[in-house]
TrEMBL record, chain A:
One of its GO terms (cellular component) is ribosome. SUPFAM superfamilies: L9 N-domain-like. The keyword Amino-acid biosynthesis does not apply. The keyword Ribonucleoprotein applies. GO terms for biological process: translation. InterPro entries: Ribosomal_bL9, Ribosomal_bL9/RNase_H1_N, Ribosomal_bL9_N, Ribosomal_bL9_N_sf. The lineage of its organism: Eukaryota, Metazoa, Ecdysozoa, Arthropoda, Hexapoda. This is Large ribosomal subunit protein bL9m. Keywords: Ribonucleoprotein, Ribosomal protein. It comes from the Eukaryota. Residues 76-121 form the Ribosomal protein L9 domain. Belongs to the bacterial ribosomal protein bL9 family.
Automatic annotation (TrEMBL), chain B:
The lineage of its organism: Eukaryota, Metazoa, Ecdysozoa, Arthropoda, Hexapoda. Coiled coil: none annotated. GO terms for molecular function: structural constituent of ribosome. The keyword Ribonucleoprotein applies. Belongs to the bacterial ribosomal protein bL28 family. Keywords: Ribonucleoprotein, Ribosomal protein. One of its GO terms (cellular component) is mitochondrial large ribosomal subunit. This is Large ribosomal subunit protein bL28m. PANTHER family: 39S RIBOSOMAL PROTEIN L28, MITOCHONDRIAL (PTHR13528), LARGE RIBOSOMAL SUBUNIT PROTEIN BL28M (PTHR13528:SF2). The keyword Nucleotide-binding does not apply. Signal peptide: none annotated. InterPro entries: Ribosomal_bL28, Ribosomal_bL28/bL31-like_sf.
Length: 266, 282
């Protein structure tokens, strides 16, 4: 009797202090821990009395589940600033709980996507003054392209004028799929073959997703089908200093960071 | 006394730790917190409670009552300055095969150091936590909501309940940590002030202390009150003396004033005298 009364009191105390509904979050969250079960269930006791004294066998437990090694579901967060590789300000993204907590919520780059925050940050995307990237990975692409040096290989024997498709092919050789309409060449035409242009630099503007613009450093290299006519091989040609083909582009080229080898020990 | 008999249905009850010793003098608001913290059955963490009141044995069809007897858990003293989210240490045995002898085993929560951010205090706190604590924080959408929504029996650690008191006190004082940013201050207050409704100011003052801390706090308070109420005899006598001196000096000055008046009115007094009048009869 006393026991039932006590348990009722317990529920009352909990209900009073707990502003959550009884079937709320707290009661679903009995996880991330060892959940055990008695191998020999405890003896039944009379209603209203305290449980019977445990015997040694009642302390033998079996593991039902260890929730530390269970896969936890992703959690939703609203970004309050641009996060490279994830999204723009105001985007609701679903990420792994550890990443969300350590990389986004603690540094203040995001907030929990609860109903109040959804309402509060409803129009943050329109009011923000931060840059908006076309896709989450666009920022990475801009960074990568501004770091590379493209060798534009042109014919040494047949006359040519540099066209976007030449640059497109050079990009493809380096592993970048760039469409022709995204490449903007300098206004001054580059005509060859001209050995004065050999190993000299120019900059092309690449437009990513018709939005982000990035200047990419390129170098002209002459190449012949006849092995005798070919220029001697220069190892690590990107380490050698070079001059701009078009003097007006010098300022642009100076702003692009020089190519840095990833594995080079400084 | 009669009410206690009614409450316990006439059954003899041993005095609890709140009814005897120095704790018996503590205010009711602390006792309320202590009951919520230590004398309430916490949420089932290390076992799965069965639903319903009765269950039927599948094989025999026998009906028996459902009695969820909790698995004994203990909380080492280290857990008092960490956040375990209701987890504890389970001491017991494993029987690895039915032929072998049972082996003692401790099921200990996995601990790691992490950071929690309290929006009300505007502070990052480096603490040792369990995965369950972090998950509960995420499930409640923030550390403050978790601490404020969860009853003390489920918070368990002294650190958590004392943080709860600090947060509640800050909310009471209108978030002084955001004094320079009034907009943010108003935002935070609007978000969290609903939690203040569950407590009176005295309950907040006495929330989140261990029994020993509460007793020493109470002692300090009592001594302070006593000091304030008792006045040393030295001060009383000094005051009396000053009163007396003041009265004496007043009398003296009054006398002097009279004399002066008398001196001034000597001519009028002389003029009033008629030496030829008859002697006044009394």
């Amino acid at each position: 009797m006393w026991k039932t009364f006590n348990s009722a009191l317990t529920t009352a105390i909990k209900a009073q202090n707990n502003l959550l509904p009884v079937n709320g979050l707290l009661y679903q969250q009995a996880r991330t821990t060892f959940v055990l079960k008695r191998k020999h269930p405890a003896q039944l006791h009379k209603a209203g009395c305290s449980p019977k004294k445990f015997r040694n066998k009642h302390y033998i437990y079996e593991l039902v589940k260890d929730t530390n090694i269970e896969l936890q579901p992703d959690i939703d967060v609203i970004l309050t600033s641009v996060v490279e590789g994830l999204g723009n300000t105001g985007d609701t993204v679903s990420v792994r709980p550890t990443i969300a907590y350590q990389k986004l919520l603690l540094p203040g780059l995001a907030v929990y996507a609860n109903p109040e925050n959804r309402e509060k940050y409803k129009d943050i995307a329109e009011t923000t003054t931060e840059v908006k990237y076309s896709t989450p990975s666009a920022a990475y692409t801009v960074k990568t392209l501004s770091r590379v040096l493209i060798s534009v290989v042109m014919n040494k024997d047949v006359p040519w004028t540099l066209k976007p498709w030449h640059v497109k092919a050079s990009f493809r050789k380096c592993g970048y799929a760039v469409p022709e309409y995204a490449i903007e060449l300098p206004a001054t035409p580059i005509v060859g073959p001209n050995m004065e242009l050999e190993n000299k630099e120019f900059a092309v503007t690449v437009t990513i997703n018709k939005q982000e613009k990035v200047n990419v450093r390129c170098r002209i290299h002459h190449w012949s089908t006849d092995p005798i006519d070919r220029l001697p091989f220069i190892p690590n040609f990107w380490d050698n200093p070079s001059e701009p083909i078009i003097p007006e582009q010098k300022s642009v080229l100076d702003t692009i960071p020089p190519k840095v080898a990833r594995n080079k020990s400084q | 006394m009669a009410s206690k008999v009614l409450r316990t249905f006439g059954k003899f009850q041993h005095a609890t730790c709140l009814e005897k010793g120095p704790a018996a003098l503590l205010p009711e608001s602390y006792k309320k917190f202590y009951r919520e913290w230590k004398l309430t059955t916490p949420t089932a963490v290390h076992y799965t409670p069965e639903d319903g009141r009765w269950k039927r044995n599948e094989v025999t069809g026998e009906v028996s009552p459902v009695q969820n007897i909790p698995i004994p858990v203990f909380f080492p003293k280290e857990s008092d300055d960490q956040l375990w989210g209701g987890e504890g240490v389970v001491q017991g045995f494993q029987q690895r095969s039915h032929l072998s002898r049972r082996v003692p085993h401790f099921w200990i929560p996995m601990l790691k150091r992490s950071v929690v951010y309290s929006e009300v205090l505007d502070k990052y706190i480096s603490v040792v936590v369990t995965d369950r604590a972090l998950r509960l924080i995420n499930a409640h959408y923030g550390f403050d909501h978790y601490i404020l929504k969860t009853p003390a029996c489920d918070l368990q650690s002294l650190l958590a309940v004392s943080l709860k008191r600090k947060i509640l006190q800050d909310l009471q004082n209108g978030c002084p940590s955001y004094a320079e940013r009034p907009d943010k201050q108003k935002d935070v207050l609007d978000q969290y002030k609903k939690y203040l409704d569950a407590y009176t100011p005295e309950e907040i003052e006495w929330y989140g202390y261990s029994l020993a801390q509460a007793v020493s706090k109470f002692k300090v308070q009592q001594e302070k009150e006593k000091e304030e109420s008792t006045v040393p005899f030295k001060q009383i006598f000094r005051a009396q003396l000053i009163e007396k001196l003041k009265a004496a000096s007043l009398d003296e000055s009054n006398n002097q004033m009279k004399e002066l008046e008398e001196g001034n009115s000597a001519t009028s007094w002389l003029s009033k005298i008629n030496p030829f009048s008859k002697k006044q009869e009394t």
